[in-house]
Amino acid sequence: MAKAKTAWFCKSCGNESAKWMGKCPACGEWNTLVEEPVAPKSSATSSAGGRVRSLLDCEQAQPLALKDIDMTAQSRIQIGNEEVERILGGGLVEGSMILIGGEPGIGKSTLSLQIPLHCPSLKTLYVSGEESPRQIKLRAERLSPDQLHDNCLILGETLLENILQQAQKLQPQLLIIDSIQTIYSEALDSSPGSVSQVRECAAMLLRYAKASNTPVVLIGHITKDGTLAGPKVLEHIVDVVLQFEGDTRHAYRILRSIKNRFGSTAELAIFEMRNNGLRQVSNPSEMLIPSHAENLSGVAVSAMIDGTRPFLIELQALVSTAAYGTPQRSATGFDTRRMNMLLAVLEKRAGFKLSAKDVFLNVAGGLKVSDPACDLSVVCAILSSNFDLPIGSKIAFAAEVGLSGEIRPVSQIEQRIAEAERLGFEQIYISSFNQLTQSSRFNRIRIVEVADISALCRLLFK
User: Fold this and answer.
1) Do 276 and 311 reside in the same domain of the chain?
2) Is the dihedral of CA 188, 192, 194, 198 positive or negative?
3) How far out from the chain centre does Cα 365 lie?
């Protein structure tokens, strides 16, 4: 029996090499080469490839002059989910390909199934390579028992050629693949989920989307380091990349736009996971600020912006005397290194002795924040817990803290102030270096400008 021929493929760019190398010669990434079998030039391979080409037969493209290209607005398909439509830029673009990634159990399949259930007029072909049609029926009855209609078609299949044949036969308005790592083609002699299979199946599905003008939604797995599994070329092929974020132990999920050829990548959508599926959170500020007693220390509210969406979030800190020799530093939802930097600033520039104390920081709601405007609220929560003095529940913060102890300005400060005022906050602490152009219109909230940590302590803990 002849030995199967193998080659080394880069998971980042898909480049093929004859032997293993530590560094990919094409993209320069380290330790990304994986060994996979190479399909022989057999009649079976040729027939499978010809079958795919016949299914995707389309006219040859012709070059056009730049001035002659039609700029008519592309029609979008409304899917009945305002949050998803907004993050896509107004709805599904015909002929587009969308990739949704996230951890197991985060809600990818739930969101993909809710789209056809909530839009009965949209003929959808839902292809599942992971679950049987019975399992999908059980989930659909749990999500929307009154919205089971004839336009939601379920296909349990993993062979790409059969999927394309059914798509050509049924002519759906939307094709959903769950998931791309389970789909394989007969034209390749490698297992499903391999670099070559994912690359070629995604390319064939993209060709189908462009030829039939049908939007295709792909669900993708992610690796243990949080990146989308498969070759990096998968993200280059698709038009939109959406990624679910959040802790599966908490109810809230963030759907973030990583790439969008038809809209802004600064948008995000927030959902709440319930027993009957994902619920849209149209006003996340009220959901992320839980009610609690007035006299709790170590709690501060930050007016942050993620993308273009302002909302307020609660940060909680606990400072206590170290029970062991080495003090503990722990942060959930916030960068631990940045928290250590802020602790060093408090000790060096403001004289607070925190080196012998345990410091724990938590972002309420199980979310992860990276906005520099959260620095001031982190500092205030730590000082409040250290002094055991509560901060008023109607006070918000929005500023960055520098290494010299100065309080630095942040962008879009007026949107942050407007969101705090809308939610009934009475005071907001900002940097004195922020230039407000419309400060006169904020009548129901008092804007307190501070220049450094010392001035903040005198005003807040007097």
Assistant:
1) no
2) positive
3) 16
Number of neighbours of residue 161 by Cβ within 10 angstroms: 18
Whether pTM exceeds 0.85: no
Determine, yes or no, domain membership for 65. Answer: no
Domain match, 151 and 234 both? yes
With tokens 């299949």, the residue in question is: 157
Instruction: Return all residues near 62 (Cβ < 8 A) that are at least 6 apart.
Output: none
Under 8 Å between Cβ of 391 and 380 = yes
Length of the chain: 462
Enclosing domain of residue 373? 286-460
What contacts 256, CB < 8 A, 6 or more positions away? 242, 243, 244, 245, 268, 307
Q: Coil, strand or helix: which one is 426?
A: coil
Half-sphere exposure of 95 (CA within 13 A, CB side): 7
User: What is the distance between the alpha carbons of residues 290 and 412, in angstroms, rounded to a whole number?
Assistant: 25
Most distant CA atoms of the chain, gap in Å: 85
For residue 127, give the nearest of 77, 87, 167 by alpha carbon.
167
> Would 112 be classed as within a structural domain?
yes
Distance CA 201, CA 207 (A): 10
By the 8 A CB rule, do 255 and 83 touch? yes
Q: Please, are residues 447 and 396 in contact by the beta-carbon 8 Å criterion?
A: no
CB 440 within 8 A of CB 422: no
Same domain, 176 and 237: yes
Q: Are residues 293 and 246 in the same domain?
A: no
Domain count of the fold of the chain: 3
- Rounded to a whole number of angstroms, the CA Rg of the chain reads 26
Position of tokens 């149209």? 282
**Is 118 strand, coil or helix?**
coil
* CB-based contacts of 237, cutoff 8 Å, min separation 6: 97, 199, 202, 203, 206
CB atoms within 10 A of CB 444: 10
Compute mean pLDDT per 10 residues along the chain, 462 residues long, and list them. 71 79 83 75 49 59 81 77 88 92 88 90 92 92 85 92 93 92 87 85 92 92 73 86 83 88 85 88 76 79 87 92 84 94 91 89 86 94 92 92 93 91 91 79 89 90 78
Q: Which two tokens stand for residue 208?
A: 């189908």
- C-alpha torsion angle, residues 372, 377, 382, 383 (rounded to 10): 120
